[in-house]
Amino acid sequence: MPSDAEIERLTANILDFIDGAAHPTLDEDATADGDFERLALDVFAFQYAHSEIYRSFCDRRGRTPDAVTSWEEIPAVPTSAFKTLELGCAPPEKTFLTSGTTQGRETRGRHHVPRLELYRRSALPHFRRMVLPDGVQPRLVGLLGGPELLPESSLAQMVEWVRTDVCDGDGEYLVDERPFDPAIAADRIENLAADGRALCLIGVRVVFTALLDHCRQVGRRIELPADSRIVDTGGPKGGRALSDAGFLRACWHHLGVPGYYCVNEYGMTELCSQYYDDVLAERFSGRNRARRKVPPPWMRARAVHAETLEPLEEGATGLLCHVDLANALSVLAVQTEDLGILDGHRLTLRGRTPGAPPRGCALALTEILAAQP
Amino acid sequence: MSDVLETRGVADLLGRLEDARCALADTTIEERVTALGRVAEGWLADGADLDATADAVALETGYAADMVAECLRRTLRAWSTRPLRQLLDRSLVAPGSIGTPPGLVVAVLAQNTPGLAVAPAFTALALGAAVLLKSARGEEAFAPRLAARIAAERADLGAACAARVWPGGHALEREVFARASRVVVYGPQEAIDAARVIAGERVVARGPRVSIAVFGEGGDPVESLAPVLAREVAFLDQRGCLSPQSILVAESIDRRGLAHGLAHELTRLETTWPRRSLSSSEASAFRRAVDETEARVLAGTCLELLGGVGHPWAVVVENDGALRPTPLDRFVRLHPFRDAAHLTTLLTPLAPHLECAALAAGESAHPALAEALRRTGAGRICAVGRMQDPPADWHAGGRRPVADLLTWSDTPRPPSTKEGKKDFLRFVAQTSEAPRGIEVDRARGSWVYAREGKRYLDLLAGIGVVSIGHAHPRVAAAVAEQSTRYTHVMVYGEDVLEPQVELAARLARRLPAELSVTYFTNSGAEAIEGALKLVRKATGRNRIVAFEGAYHGDTTGAMALGGNPFSRTPFEPLIGPVEHLPWNDVDALDRIDGETAAVFAEPVQAEAGVRIPAPDFLPQLAQRCRDVGALLVFDEVVTGLGRTGRWFGFEHWPGSQPDVIVLAKSLGGGLPLGAFISSPELSRCLATDPPLGHVTTFGGNPVSCAAGLAALDVLEEEGLPERAGAVGAAFVEDVRRAIGHGLRDVRGIGLLVGLEFETPARAAAFADACRTRGLLLGWTLHEDRVVRLAPPLNISRSDLAHAVAVFEAALGEGA
């Protein structure tokens, strides 16, 4: 277990980096990976030293701080391990749980976060930069449950910080413990839009879909005020979700929000930092590149072979491993089940690794055991 | 590659399989088993072909070729003569119950394992069923090779076995499944469920299963067992249901030692049986399982992970007995267990799915562990190293490989004909004192199958009715389709019924232009009756001329035309005046006079003993009719539609075109249908003065017309009239060589053939002897010295050669 002083020193270093980092993609004066790499290797050494489980994990892989010379070599912990292992280098200030999947009775992953401040200080600046590059201070409309309803959700925590810190406390959540009623939500959004202040609708794709389906079915169009924008966060699963293109079309048709004001967030419980579509940031920086997802300067990704975990060439579709300095006190490097293509730091998601279809006459025990009460 | 089955080929394929199955009825189980056993043994001996087959299967499945070859060898050994015979001996006996073999077995080999086709093919063929093997897409190399080996060994078995691929779930599959007695599905539950949607309870499910291995105390040293265990795990990369996914090891045994030995052997096996390249999804599943296991090792809930990412195998040493999933592909877990009772508890979740349990244990531990495995419902308990060698009669997972294909009945269908014949004599009106009395079970092509199991080559085709063979699939399909559209809507002549209209138009195109309007009836006799009314009304005369020996039917009007006083007299007075002229006598034609409404004649007198007229007789008859204004009616009920080698009999004699032609018998493709066809002017006579002067309720029934159209299609497409001429001439020549032993003459036109004997007794003895030998042939109504033949026009030359051989034997016996 590290001492408080070690924790504070590392935290301070990370926060300094976060506060001062230029964005390698969005900022023309950004430096190379040097500072990031140095810090990443420091954090790796710290975690190797202070997390016995992570140390064993690295030893199994033959990757020790002595042998690792670049951030890309840092062993990444599979997201599945968060379901089994108590990962972290210090007692958690808060533990967030993964949402689970449609596969049913499944242990949820646990991300123990020793310093919430690292999470907050990571999440908010990148949100501002990617979602509010024009400096607008909108009213937040959460199409998800608030932190009281979802105390274990890292997303709910982040959105609440957005409401309090970015939107000056102005906003509300339209999902509560009752079944979501899109008609009521639409009415409320219309009311909130009445005073002309820009809204930032943020929530999960299935709730957006329910709202937009309702508008389509009843022929409803809500004119959101100018500068309003939409942030959809993808999962969780468990309902009908519009495709990306269908979502953008519906946002325009039924909410009057053009596609370039619709930003998709890609994050996960196991990470304190997030990716966002760069569509708005690009627009307000005067560029016009195709929509991609970009991380903050304190997070990097690499794509690896889905079977061998060997690194892939840039441009190849592979399993995404993220190295997030904001995870300095939990798990620096996380290996996901998401597939993506990297173009420098810019990311295109390609879905998740598929489940293996049955082949042959062997019955996988998975099916039998899944059926057990 | 398998042939791809397409919609237009379904009826033909199923028809051919059914024909082949019918032909198998002449063979015994022993003959079939012997032949199939030779297929297996011959293939095992033909190493080069077996290896080539293994290479082809390996290429498409990705499995190691050596491993596939071993899989095929094991399969063929399991299905060689002796085990196959034992299987049938054991399977076909059930006290108090009798199993009826299936007709067609369709085996769906969804996501198959190499050699899987052998089991359904051999069981079905051994039972005398036809089998259609549906390979999985992309795994099509084996089944066609198996079918070819069977055909090479024995043609009749090969004809009853086909291998195809086709898309699942479409109309084509519904058509195939509809004809199947059993649909055996090897594959995942989704494939089984999809088949059940179509074939319901006829589906025999061979779903995925799971196998395990158990190591108890006192068995052979783990070092010696590790190599065989590794082969069990690696076999078909655990994708076969006989490879262990979990290995339960007694606590007292060094589990880690066994795991390391197993890991070592799995590494060694990579040189001879390398794991196939995994798909991205399989690779991901494998890697995920490794990730999760690695985390559990770190968490201390699992002792050790050997192999994993970067290795083509993974061995996990678990520290408890809780079974966990594996992604397969050589990923195996070793669990500890305390004792037999604990083993039972641990295996409880697997109970409904457990296929095979391999057991290695010393003498003292073995019985209790085996009993524990039995209690879990393991389909088979065997030694480690024997998992991949299931015997043919292994009750796979409690399912019976043969018995599942049979229909079991506690009240068996009596093989005896006594009851059926008794009821026939009691409840069905008799037409003679000694009816033939064959209890017909089914008929197909040129063969009729009796309930007692005997089959007959039908040289009479239901008196010339089924000229395209019995139960032709095209007719069956047409009947099915039309009967689902509509059967009877309105009495004849009121509404536009498409099958009637089309058939009438098709007949008109085949006939001279003047014969363009058809009046449909139910039968030939009824058509003669209609023609009688027509000619009388059209000419205003009532005198009719017919010929001695003629037969036109048994209704009173038709009978009045009949030329046999012996048949006619008991029912007189009949309609008149009718004068009977001598057949084939040109001089007698003068008696056709200006009072004569019409002359009725058969171009060839069938019932009089296949009497073919002299070349000038029918032309002169036609000329005489024209001279005196009498109408000429040709009864082509027998001779029409190809029987004589031309579409219509009168076409043999130019200048003999009639005014009215009467058709029936083969017109309906086996269903009742008759017609009289005339010119528009003539036919109008029946429509007016009085209106509705001739009506029929059922005449031209749409279903019969649809069947008739299908039969007409077959006649045209296969050129059967022309074929009848050529085949018939050759057949007559062949039979002529047998003249002697009482056979005096053989004559024929097309496939209407008469065998004339010296005496009626000789003819009767010949007919009896032929029937005993499995031939159906008929006498004639008016000439008891003549045996008449009118086989299907598509009868095979080999069947005709068989008939000639039987004739010779029967004649020899008569001598």
How would you describe the overall organization of this protein?
The complex is a heterodimer of chains A (373) and B (815). Chain A is built from ten helices and 14 strands. With 373 residues, chain A is of the alpha/beta class. Chain A has two domains: 4-99 and 295-370, Luciferase, Domain 3 (Luciferase, domain 3); 118-292, Rossmann fold. In chain A, a hairpin with a 2-residue loop joins strand 13 (333-343) and strand 14 (346-352). The radius of gyration of chain A is 21 Å and the shape is globular. With 815 residues, chain B is of the alpha/beta class. Chain B is built from 28 helices and 30 strands. Chain B has a seven-stranded mixed β-sheet with strand order 10-11-12-9-8-13-14, with helices on both faces. A seven-stranded mixed β-sheet of chain B has the order 19-25-24-23-22-20-21, sandwiched between helices. Chain B has a six-stranded parallel β-sheet with strand order 1-5-4-3-6-7, with helices on both faces. In chain B, a hairpin with a 2-residue loop joins strand 16 and strand 17 (447-450). Chain B is elongated, with a radius of gyration of 36 Å. The mean pLDDT of chain B is 90. The chains are: A alpha/beta (373), B alpha/beta (815). Chains A and B meet through helix 3, strand 1 and helix 10 of A and helix 13 of B.
How do you describe this structure in short?
The complex is a heterodimer of chains A (373) and B (815). Chain A is α/β, with parallel strands linked by helices and 373 residues long.
Helix coverage percent of chain A: 25-40%
**Largest sheet descriptor of chain A:** 7 strands, mixed
Helix content of chain B: 40-55%
Number of helices, counting only DSSP H or I runs of 4 residues or more of chain A: 10
Radius of gyration of chain B: 36 Å
